[in-house]
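Ticket #200: bound-state structure for N-oxalylglycine.
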Amino acid sequence: MDAMHLPKSWPVEQILDNLAQHGFAIIDQAYSPEYTGALVHECSTHLNEFRDAAIQNGVVSNIRSDHILWIDQQLKVAQQHIQALNALSQHLNQAFFLGIKEAEAHFACYNAGEFYALHRDNPQGKNGRMISTVYYLHEAWENDWGGELRLQDKNNQWHIIHPEPNRIAIFQSDLLHEVLEAKHQRLSITAWLRTDQPLW
Ligand code: OGA
Ligand code: MN
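RESOLUTION: The complex was predicted; output attached.
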């Protein structure tokens, strides 16, 4: 995990406090317009490479209908986001002893009509995912476009999180959540902060 500086706009104490109290935190206006623009461009130019997320190892599931592209070293702009998350992981490890070593991430595209039904990213601690993060990178989002992240916090309260552009939702990977059906194209990067090497 590379050492790197946390973006100045990330309120680390507030993030740690919200994670401790509720199991989730939100960062708004996470990045500069220049960086966000570069990320949108990188995502858009690779949209033709996105694959059906429901198909894994040839097996089709009906829990989700979005399309994804795993982020590797070639995707230089997205790599910077992963570096920022690595910097955040150092704070998370200090505060909560999570033992995060790696981040794995993919772009996701939900076209109109697509969704991700209720799930946990790490049910019963069966994988190394400790913290899930979702960065929303579409250029605009209206409140009636659907596509909300609905999340049950660690005290069993439900929250509706709108996928506002340039927002990052951060939550414990064991929490129950879903993506409601989007009515417009919804672009994001999901990244998991994990204790071991990704399996893919
Ligand atoms: C996921 C997920 C939530 C979102 O990718 O596992 O739950 O808001 N994403 O995109
Ligand atoms: Mn999820």
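RESOLUTION NOTES: The mean pLDDT is 95.
TICKET STATUS: resolved
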